[in-house]
Write a structure and sequence with these properties.
The protein is α+β, with helices and mostly antiparallel strands and about 350 residues long. It is built from 12 helices and 9 strands.
């Protein structure tokens, strides 16, 4: 029975990761729900946990800690590299200039900007809290994995290397920028969490929790396992359905057509609208609605043919930054400023250089 439970556990985990990976590669650069993906991985971890309770062997408990670490690393990479990030591409010289311009080595500069600048409060809280808690699970799992990680020195070493690897991957794949405040929040949040569980003697409690069957009746364990397995299967099915729906809808209608203007282009062209300005950088862009009515980009915006509130439904890639939202299609890039609502349009490889902050 123990062997069958282990095989069932691996089948569900591996199949779910494959489905998630397929979804991640194809559609997670859209406006996606972090909470949905977090819930999905919590369910996978719960499945591992309940199977451990049923088998109730020390070797299985130790193996499960490693499985939790693998699941956490997959989730961490997904959140920092793929989900709601631009379509990643290998490093190029053009991106390097943008990357260098966005580097922040001044401690607390970004954190202070979140509270004193023209940044939506929800965005500020989301970024700060998200960075604070990002590495807390890693600190916790290290403690469960080996008593060597009960020391600040060991914790700090692993946490620092982890943040460096994330920053390097974001740099290579053009999926982020270097900010010293990320280091402060990531490592500071994890060390604060480690201090709390260390000072309150919760480390031993956690170890006993993850190394025993909690005296739960076997029937109850099977009921919990069944419910968790069902929830995971339902989410797998939803991911598969969403994959097919998105794939079909993407083939059905192309809203935008764009090409670069190489002759007689003098650079950024400003078009004044009612509530904002449109800036077009050597591009001709047209919009076709659901009924195949054709408009120039200016006409579509002026006549409100384009739904500015839900722009993500038109584009393959959406990235959210503190002062701008970036949309990319096969042919062009569009920026919308979060405060002024000004719009910038340029080529497919156009990078954000702080236009909305000026």
């Amino acid at each position: 029975m123990d062997k069958k439970l282990s095989i069932l556990n691996y089948i569900i985990i591996i199949f779910s990761i494959i489905v998630f990976g397929e979804y991640l590669i194809n559609f997670a650069t859209y406006s996606s729900s972090y909470i949905l993906f977090l819930l999905f991985f919590i369910l996978l971890a719960m499945h591992v946990f309940v199977v451990g309770l049923l088998i109730n062997k020390e070797s299985v408990y130790k193996r499960n800690i490693k499985l939790y670490l693998i699941l956490y690393i997959i989730l961490l990479i997904s959140l920092t590299i793929f989900i709601n990030r631009p379509d990643f591409a290998l490093f190029d010289a053009k991106y390097f200039k943008t990357y260098v311009a966005g580097i922040n080595l001044i401690p607390f500069k970004t954190i202070i900007h979140y509270f004193t600048g023209n940044v939506n409060l929800g965005v500020s809280i989301y970024n700060i809290v998200g960075n604070l808690v990002a590495l807390m699970p890693l600190s916790f799992l290290l403690v469960l994995l080996d008593k060597r990680y009960d020391s600040y020195k060991k914790q700090l070493k692993v946490l620092f290397i982890t943040v460096l690897i994330i920053e390097f991957m974001q740099f290579i794949l053009a999926a982020g920028r270097l900010d010293i405040d990320d280091f402060i929040l990531n490592i500071g949040g994890a060390l604060l969490f480690f201090t709390i569980i260390k000072k309150t003697n919760l480390i031993d409690v956690a170890r006993s929790l993850f190394n025993s069957d909690l005296n739960i009746p076997k029937v109850t364990k099977y009921i919990i396992l069944g419910l968790v397995s069902l929830a995971i299967v339902v989410m797998d099915i939803l991911f598969i359905i969403d994959l097919n729906i998105n794939d079909t809808s993407n083939q059905e209608h192309d809203y935008f057509f764009a090409h670069e203007v190489r002759d007689n282009c003098s650079g950024l062209r400003k078009v004044t609208m009612d509530d904002y300005n449109l800036y077009i950088n050597c591009m001709e862009v047209s919009f076709t609605d659901e009924n195949d009515n054709y408009f120039t980009l200016e006409e579509a915006l002026e006549n409100e043919e384009i739904d500015l509130v839900n722009l993500d439904k038109y584009f393959k890639i959406v990235e959210f930054l503190e002062d701008v939202t970036i949309y990319r299609d096969d042919d062009f890039t569009l920026f919308t400023c979060n405060d002024s609502k000004d719009i910038y349009v340029g080529s497919r490889d156009m990078k954000y250089n702080g236009e909305c902050a000026s």
